[in-house]
């Protein structure tokens, strides 16, 4: 007797297209194009940018933000943000991993929240237990999206602002 395939109901429905979807579509398209045509080595412009941006943060520090490119691979950047005062994560060290595409600054980096305790921790409604950071700059949320002028500094300051706004269990609903 043949095995029956049981269909599961869809968990999400597609929303109608609107102009607000454009930044997200652009980032998704950029990631697809990057995946299909990505060179094996970072472009010269990418190397210049990824060597300059961390040095800029070191020379002009942002309070409570620390960045360090991975040794041997400047396209992976680790960012540590100290939990802001008057939030549940006050004083904690919150780790993020940023993966820049080899054609950066043309396309946005992927941003991942690393302090999820195996998917059990979520600090606010825009930082998911899967590690996804819902932010407009890398194209994972509506709003002003990535452009080639966006710097590492502006990206990590935006992430820091997520920790200040809407932090806490009461905001997860």
From TrEMBL:
GO function term, MF aspect, one: ATP binding
InterPro entries in UniProt: UBC, UBQ-conjugating_enzyme/RWD
Enzyme Commission number(s): 2.3.2.23
Gene Ontology terms describing biological process: apoptotic process; negative regulation of apoptotic process
Boundaries of every UBC core domain copy: 45-173
Locations listed in the record: Cytoplasm; Nucleus
Nucleotide-binding recorded as keyword: yes
Presence of the UniProt keyword Nucleotide-binding in the record: yes
Keywords, in A-Z order: Apoptosis, ATP-binding, Cytoplasm, Nucleotide-binding, Nucleus, Transferase, Ubl conjugation pathway
Residues spanning the signal sequence: none
EC class of the enzyme, as a word: transferase
One cellular component term from this protein's GO annotations in UniProt: nucleus
The protein's name: Ubiquitin-conjugating enzyme E2 Z
Organism: Rhipicephalus microplus
């Amino acid at each position: 007797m043949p095995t029956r395939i049981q269909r599961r109901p869809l968990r999400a429905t597609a929303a109608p297209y609107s102009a607000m979807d454009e930044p997200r579509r652009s980032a998704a398209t950029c990631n697809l194009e990057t995946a299909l045509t990505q060179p094996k080595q970072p472009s010269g412009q990418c190397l210049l940018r990824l060597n300059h941006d961390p040095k800029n943060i070191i020379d002009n520090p942002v309070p409570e933000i620390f960045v360090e490119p991975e040794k041997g691979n400047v396209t992976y950047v680790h960012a540590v943000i100290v939990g802001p005062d008057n939030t549940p994560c006050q004083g904690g060290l919150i780790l993020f991993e940023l993966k820049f595409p080899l054609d950066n600054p043309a396309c946005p980096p992927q941003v991942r929240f690393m302090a999820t305790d195996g998917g059990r921790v979520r600090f606010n409604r825009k930082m998911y237990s899967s590690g996804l950071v819902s932010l407009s700059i890398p194209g994972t949320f509506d709003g002003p999206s990535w452009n080639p002028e966006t710097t590492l500094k502006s990206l990590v300051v935006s992430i820091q602002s997520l920790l200040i706004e809407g932090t806490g269990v009461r905001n997860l609903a």
